[in-house]
Queue: 4 jobs
Job 1
Amino acid sequence: MTGSDRRIRIWIDRTPPSEVVIPPDAELVDGPEDADGVVVAADRPWDDDACRRFPNLKVVARSGIGYDNVDVAACAAHGVAACNTPDAPTVSTAEHALALMLAVAKRLKGSEARLAAGTAGGPGRLAGPGALELDGRNLGLVGCGRIGSLLGRYAEALGMDVLVYDPYLEAAPVGELVDLDQLWAKADVVSLHAPATPETRHIINSDSLGAMRPGVIIINCARGALVDQEALLAALDSGHLGGAGLDVTEPEPLPPGHPLLGRDNVVVTPHVASTTSVGIVRLIAQAVEQALIWLRGGIPEHLLDPAAAHPGVDRRTSTAP
């Protein structure tokens, strides 16, 4: 098929679920070298070198909200648009953050381990020392976009009070807007929902941990770079930190034997918060949709570089066979 009747070629960096429907004007190809548009996840870098190697490429769609693996400026320099899907992972990730918070607060990991070892004891001892009742406690949200605000609503349903630090908000969509020092001082649980930037790198560090209440729980479903893991380990070892629930780490995944693994009060999952069965379909389907909008001549809602929509930018797909 040649000319204007050729279908748009899309490459997805992992096998899509059967529920993802590819429109009739598009087709999936086996590799990015044949693609007009690509859909990439968090673990695939897309930079100057990638754009240079695939000259037919017109758009990169990140199947998720964070796009630190996509060099937007490098893409733009090669005439490649970049977009993401910030609505796709919201529900799955907020639910995962809630699951981590409850698992750590209720000491589920340690309780199961003692039961398996035959050392659980009688009724009333199964939860183990230090299990928390979250009703009446304070949840501190560092960042309160789609995921953070949904987690805040879940927390309020549990009877928690929600404190929000987000320098980009004039009013909190849930709970009370506070400054960062107030959040550190008052939160019983701190949950991170900020992007990885130079300003947020290691926002959880020895100083911020020292400013928190004894027994505080840290939840991170955002990016591993937000947490200084050495400081986190030191706070766990000293007993100042009550526990942690981490879906993201540095590196990813953590190697076997890492000191964060195997602790009763730490639950680590391998960056899977958004990958529920429904979530995966939503992530890929929305990324494909964003790419196709661009390749059909439209402007995707989540275009990361608005300058790419300048009328002079060439969005025509190749007419080669």
Note: The first strand starts at residue 8 and ends at 12.
Job 2
Amino acid sequence: MIKTLAISNYRSLLNLVIPFGNLNVITGENASGKSNLYKALRLLSETAEGGVINSLAREGGLNSTFWAGPEKISKAMRKGEVNIEGGPKQKAARLRLGFSTEDFGYSISLGLPPPGSLGPTAFSLDPEIKKECIWAGEAYRPASLLIDRTGAAVKVRSNRQWQVISQHASHFESIFAQVADPTTAPEVITMREEIKGWRFYDHFRSDAEAPARLPQLGTRTPVLHHDGRDLAAALQTIIEIGDVNALNDAISDAFPGATLSIAVQEDSRFSVNLQQEGLLRPLSASELSDGTLRYLLWVAALLTPRPPPLMVLNEPETSLHPDLLPALARLIIRAAKNTQVWVVSHASRLIATLESAEECHSVHLEKVLGQTQVVGQGMLDEPLWRWPDKSK
């Protein structure tokens, strides 16, 4: 479980360190930084997939993601005694992302190459990975460092000694893509597989041509695709090897008297049928409202027979009728018993039901002078966090 998330110099997140629990709700007013927090976590996940540089390119390049305000906001600026003004940069611009669990911590620092340092190239604006570290425990300390990558050099700690395992690491690829020896660096393998297991759901298609509305060739599907295309197969998998009682409870909670079934055609194509109270025949997925279909998609995602280490739901209330939100919240609370769940939302009914759970950890964001902050979080409330390259 992620205990701490740290982000520095990413859009409105100038310096954010947040503790997390098993069930987390991230909320705030529009433009408070919720989407930036979600995007930053997606960037972290891309490190394990080898796509962090491409993801930054899709955002307009590293320069466009840097904090756009002054390097330091003084007390006088905060009090309005002087205008918000910048000055000469004292430090090299770095985008830093990191997190820690009970066992390990990880951080990555990205920056632009010095002008002319790469020689003739068409990729002079590609960001470089300047620093990458894995350490033991929740908080970084020099003595707890296990993997230390600085530029092209990667070294691992072995029996209190450092062993250099690469001096020519690619500047644009993470150690997760370049270090694959489970004997020399098992921590890299462990952390990579942990991050690759994270699941993000932020866009379920429910339009008239959505694949979830159409019969699809069915195979065992313990993990719903991120766009919901294999809905029927995922639901049938839950019926056969998952928690079918939880599935039935989730349907009756949202649609009293309704029952769900999966029709299997002769050509092995699966389709969803929902029998609702008072109707003489079940409705197929093509006939369901956008909200009903999206609720079924959330059921399939949250009741997965193969729970991930982390599941992130971005605005799950989209297209749902407000009356369905309490049922969705109860489904999320149930799922959080088996996996860590983060919910990014501004739907008051969903948030209220989630926050009624004793284990819910709420993170309310606000923006002050363009900088995203956690409401009510003082210096003493922040988890202990140190960046390995803070002085550089």
Note: The CA atoms of residues 228 and 297 lie 6 Å apart.
Job 3
Amino acid sequence: MKKIITIGREFGSGGREFGRRLSEALGIAYYDQEIVSEIAKRTSLSEQYVQSIVEQRPVFSFPIHIGRSFYPTANPIFEMNMAVYQEQARIISEMAAKSSCVIVGRCADYILRDDNPFRIFVYADMDSKIKRCLEKAQEGEKLTEKEVKQQITSIDKKRAQYYAFYTGHTWGDKLNFDLCINTSHTAIKEIVPAVAKLFG
């Protein structure tokens, strides 16, 4: 029987690592950055541009003067955001149709709701997220704990707005998930075997 697992995650919670390790434990496909690459390929947009608008709520930037009409003129930025989301939804649906897989982020739990995926949300307390981010920082990247906390807060806020805009649901709400995992002060590799047993 095909397994479709979606993973929502707070920034710094280790959700991406969890998804990768879970896919390896189950021997199934793993999709994350691959989705962005595929959108870029299909739309002729750069991966950097696609990444900059994926998981961010579309920006409304209507002109100040719109004449006497109650309808604003076309907004190319908003339309591009919507086009990228629609392409993303198509790609995620295609990936899920092909084989068992783990898909990280990008409203996959909502996009695939008719396929009844197993929906996981990964979270952690702020201290654990800061520690994990500092440990995984690229060489030469010297951020203070305060700067990392601001980055985590900002990214999670954008993810919440993005999720609410496209799904109409609250990001991280336990009612939207089948399993919520707290990774605070815990090594991801120690959690995965227990979760993998659910799909044995």
Note: Strands lie at 4-9, 29-31, 101-104, 118-123, 179-182.
Job 4
Amino acid sequence: MSARGPVRPGFLAIVGCTGAGKTALSLLVARELDAEIISMDSRQVYRGMDIGTAKATPRERALVPHHGLDIRDPGERYSAGDFGRDARRWITEIRSRGRVPLLVGGTGFFLRVLTDPIFREPPLDRDRQAALEELLGTLERRELERWVRVLDPERAPVSIAGGCQRMLRTLSVTLLTGEKLSRWHVRHPTEGKPLAGVVCRLRVSAEVLRERIGRRVRAMMAAGFVDEVGRLLDAGCTPDDPGMNGVGYREIASHLAGAITLDEAAERIRRSTRRYAKRQRTWFRHQLGPGVVGVDGAAPLEAQAATVVKAWRERTRAPVAHLAAAASAANAEPAHP
């Protein structure tokens, strides 16, 4: 919301943790609203990674246009800043066609970069950055954490919580520019103005989610997930690549290396996916802010879609003067674990 008053939402978003049922819901909503889908998944951007990321199938993409899929090789990085620039362009193009931009995914930082833009990333020499990150990548995680705490103590908690890739980014920016990443966030301009949108959070209980994750892992295995990972490794990808370090790919790579059995790999994938989903639920519960539309993920799919469609139509058709009231009154999300 700007200082001039309420702003009409420019996009619709469906968010939720892994296994919540976002894909099926988004396809139904997209057909109802004549929308185009923008993926907000940090792993679905990678080519050749289809089964393990639950990417929309060719048939589903034929039914509804999708953006943000298959735009990087697994060895390439794709940051929230990259997504922010791409998504702004996709949103503009979709709206110019008179259609609804529908953002769908579980990567919360991808949504945040649109509603609360981050700083403009500093220009870095890609060759020097790659060489530095290759060198830093040989360090154990504990040593990486120590370097982050020394070089950028203000950024350290967020960086360490984000894992090795985020720590490498923090260190590479600091070492290659001579300025801490935390200072870049404070002193340099953002990528663009905040965008207003209608955000719907798909909610499911821990018990339902556990069952769905188990079913999903079984389906991935039956669909040829092991062969998918084998093809990626044969093509020169490694488990340390930005795309390959996602849940599932590391475990199957360990199995193919002979370190664990396939049953052990499947169980590790289930456990890792449940932990990841728990982190996603926590993030969405605390970071989305007021006015989020709660959607019962255990309700019939048609009822879920009706909730999302109603929220979009009410908030986009309401006079500007009444948008603030609509945002707080229309299906505001109740407290939920």
Note: The radius of gyration is 20 Å.
